Write a sequence for this structure.
């Protein structure tokens, strides 16, 4: 199993009200889909790219009592993330197993899982890695087992009228870095998360490994300044948006560039706070 010890800074974004609301709506829809199709028991559950365990926590909070899971596996390539997930979930989950591995190397017994979820992480992988991962997930699912994922990195994630916000933020961040004398270092290929595949790409992906597509839905979240500052500080996000700059300085520059961009291009909510809407795509699939 791979070990990555690193600073992990996704949790502040995952703890914002807006993030928990949109991801809570999505996990609720996953449970509803299973209940509507007559699922009566849920024994073994896997949370892929668990991060701070947010998706698993939201999922369990909404699970009807008769569907309580008995064993939970949380997988992440970051050891720092798994520590946070353990802290968040150990009180609520009786049997918790942490797996420090990349999803491509998933190694669970065949036909052993009832549900696998993959929140906010599939877009970091290229298509070959995604297919390898989905094949491993399918193998680990019991017949009739469920696979759910979501992403806010796809073609429809940034509504047309929000594009000026992103352009201004990146332009401000680059200017800030130039003033500091920071130069672009890596210029080869785009980061995977900077490639926004169409919705149909993700709908078809599950079919490519022989899973049945059950549902695809989009959700919207109105993200305020603090949420944008948190996500812009997340190194994988900043690296995608400011490709080619050293990670730490890219995070800082992207964070500092939020305020002027959102004041210029954001809408204003009933509390007088500026926001920019982001969309999430949610996919539900099942092993025959
Ligand atoms: C944006 S966070 C999402 C965390 C959580 N699932 C959520 O939705 O709040 C993405 C997570 O994916 C993990 N990750 C990225 N690539 C991975 C891979 N190939 N295998 C396993 N974990 C990965 C990162 O370490 C990070 O914890």
């Amino acid at each position: 199993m791979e070990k990555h010890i690193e600073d992990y800074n996704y949790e502040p974004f995952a703890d914002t009200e807006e993030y928990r609301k949109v991801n809570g709506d999505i996990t609720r829809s996953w449970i509803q889909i299973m209940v509507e199709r007559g699922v009566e028991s849920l024994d073994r559950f896997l949370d892929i790219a668990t991060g701070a365990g947010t998706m698993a926590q939201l999922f369990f909070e909404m699970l009807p009592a008769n569907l309580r899971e008995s064993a939970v596996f949380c997988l992440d390539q970051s050891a720092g993330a798994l520590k946070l997930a353990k802290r968040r979930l150990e009180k609520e989950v009786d049997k918790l197993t942490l797996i420090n591995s990349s999803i491509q190397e998933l190694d669970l017994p065949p036909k052993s899982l009832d549900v696998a979820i993959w929140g906010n992480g599939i877009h970091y992988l290229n298509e070959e890695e995604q297919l390898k991962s989905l094949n491993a997930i399918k193998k680990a699912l019991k017949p009739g087992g469920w696979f759910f994922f979501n992403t806010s990195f796809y073609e429809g994630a940034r509504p047309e009228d929000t594009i000026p916000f992103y352009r201004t933020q990146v332009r401000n961040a680059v200017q800030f870095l130039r003033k500091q004398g920071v130069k672009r270092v890596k210029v080869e290929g785009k980061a995977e998360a900077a490639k926004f595949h169409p919705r149909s790409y993700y709908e078809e992906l599950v079919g490519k490994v022989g899973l049945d597509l059950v549902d695809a839905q989009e959700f919207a979240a109105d993200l305020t300044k603090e949420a944008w500052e948190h996500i812009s500080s997340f190194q994988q996000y900043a690296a995608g948006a400011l490709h080619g700059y050293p990670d730490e300085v890219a995070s800082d520059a992207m964070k500092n560039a939020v305020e002027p961009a959102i004041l210029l291009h954001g809408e204003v909510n009933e509390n007088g706070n500026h926001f920019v809407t982001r969309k999430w795509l949610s996919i539900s699939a099942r092993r025959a």
In short: Residues 17-36 form the longest helix (20 residues). Residues 1-5 have pLDDT under 50 and may be disordered. The longest strand covers residues 212-224. Residues 11-286 form a domain with the Rossmann fold fold (CATH 3.40.50.150).
